[in-house]
Specification:
This protein is an alpha/beta fold and 403 residues long. The chain is built from 17 helices and eleven strands. A hairpin with a 6-residue loop joins strand 6 and strand 7.
């Protein structure tokens, strides 16, 4: 009898805990909507509160350079905008420089500007740094920038001048630099891909680390309702508490960007009210996520009642297979080159610039050799094969090596 009584109390305790979690999620969401933070960073988790405090402190003290790091889709641009708006440069110019999107051979002219006659068709044109004078420039994914360009950016941050492409006049600008990266710049600097001096200069005034969404599940319903309100207007579609709990319990490998995608898909199925069934149906399509869902205690019953999830993760994950193939190519090239990283980069075609047609016997200038070495080191660091490259014994032939 006593055992039965204990079971009943345990069940009541679980019910009370489920009710508290649900009430907390909904109450926190309503409270956040009523007191929306001026920085635009929604959430009530300790991590997001701490991030807002760090941004506010940087804005008050002023900054010359700040590094923002976090996984893809976590909201680095939102944090950058919040940091800019909290600073004294809020009304100044704001330039966004997307480093991976600019071709390598155009990066210098886009960044520093051009002088008429510098090359056929060149005009007097200010670059992103000049356009950002008096304000802020945001370098998105700065790890994609070449080392020689990194050195020139470092000079600008330190208050030194630069010259436009083809020009002789030294240009000085007053800009605050915010740089973002989804990769670990410490590791890239250790691998020689990213300049140590630029890395330390970027973090001197501040380094903001944005936590992934899976580490702050209490923020998920808040972000979800905020997105529904902005996407659909007033009245916004209603997100049922059970659906909010399911969203909070998911792993979110794609972070906030993936959350918005899930909500867009759910809106197509239920434009007025989003319930747990439709959320479970949409999340089932993302079951091959590398980050498993970690539901709170209160979500376990809801998940059990929802339609069954898809089978176990299949072995046809496109990104995993691609990365595995790339790692193998790097290792094979390193072996074929008898441990010479420059030669391995040349075997892989890293000595050619993007869009350049491969030829049977390109002129291997010092510039091409340095490009091959840099790119080989970069991909080793990006794919995490540095230790494997060091341990790998040369000897096996690379399929692309010349006879």
């Amino acid at each position: 009898m006593a055992q039965y009584g204990r079971r009943r109390l345990t069940a009541r305790g679980r019910d009370r805990k489920s009710a508290r979690v649900t009430a907390a999620l909904v109450a926190a969401d309503d409270d956040n909507e009523q007191r929306h933070d001026t920085l635009g960073l929604a959430g009530t988790s300790p991590a997001i509160r701490r991030l807002r405090a760090e941004i506010a402190a940087l804005g008050r003290s002023g900054f010359r350079a700040v590094l923002v790091q976090g996984e893809s889709g976590v909201g680095k641009e939102v944090v950058t905008e919040a940091l800019r708006r909290s600073s004294s440069r809020a009304t100044g110019a704001f330039e966004i420089f997307d480093c991976p999107a600019v071709p390598e051979d155009h990066l210098e002219s886009e960044l520093f500007g051009t002088t008429r006659g510098a090359f056929p068709g060149a005009l007097d044109k200010p670059g992103a740094l000049e356009r950002g004078h008096g304000g802020t420039i945001f370098f998105d994914e700065i790890a994609a920038m070449r080392r020689e360009h990194q050195a020139k950016v470092l000079r600008v941050i330190e208050g030194k001048g630069f010259r436009r492409v083809g020009g002789s006049r030294v240009v000085s600008v007053d800009v605050a630099v915010i740089a973002a990266a989804h990769e670990d710049l410490t590791s890239l600097a250790a691998a020689g891909v990213f300049r140590h001096d630029l890395y330390y200069r970027l973090i001197r005034d501040g380094a903001l680390q944005i936590p992934p969404l899976r580490e702050r599940p209490e923020d998920v319903p808040i972000l979800a309702r905020q997105y529904l309100a902005s996407a659909c207007g007033d009245p916004a579609p209603r997100l049922e508490p059970a659906a909010a709990l399911l969203l909070a319990g998911y792993g979110w490998p794609g972070n906030v960007r993936q959350l918005h995608t899930v909500l867009r898909m759910a809106l197509r199925l239920q434009p007025d009210v989003i319930d747990a069934v439709v959320v479970q149906d949409v999340l089932r399509r993302f079951d091959r996520s590398p980050h498993p869902a970690r539901p709170a205690d209160a979500t376990v019953g809801l998940i059990a009642e929802a339609p069954p999830r898809a089978p176990e993760r299949v072995a046809t994950d496109f990104h995993a297979i691609t990365a595995r193939t790339q790692r193998q190519l790097l290792l094979d090239a390193f072996e074929a080159a008898a441990g010479n990283k420059t030669a391995a980069g040349i075997l892989l075609g890293f000595h050619l610039s993007p869009g350049e047609e491969p030829v049977s016997a390109p002129v291997l200038t010092d510039g091409r050799r340095n490009l091959a070495l840099r790119k080989f080191r970069y991909w080793c660091a990006r794919l995490g094969v540095n230790d494997a490259v060091v341990r790998r014994a040369p000897g096996r032939r690379f399929a692309g090596a010349p006879e």
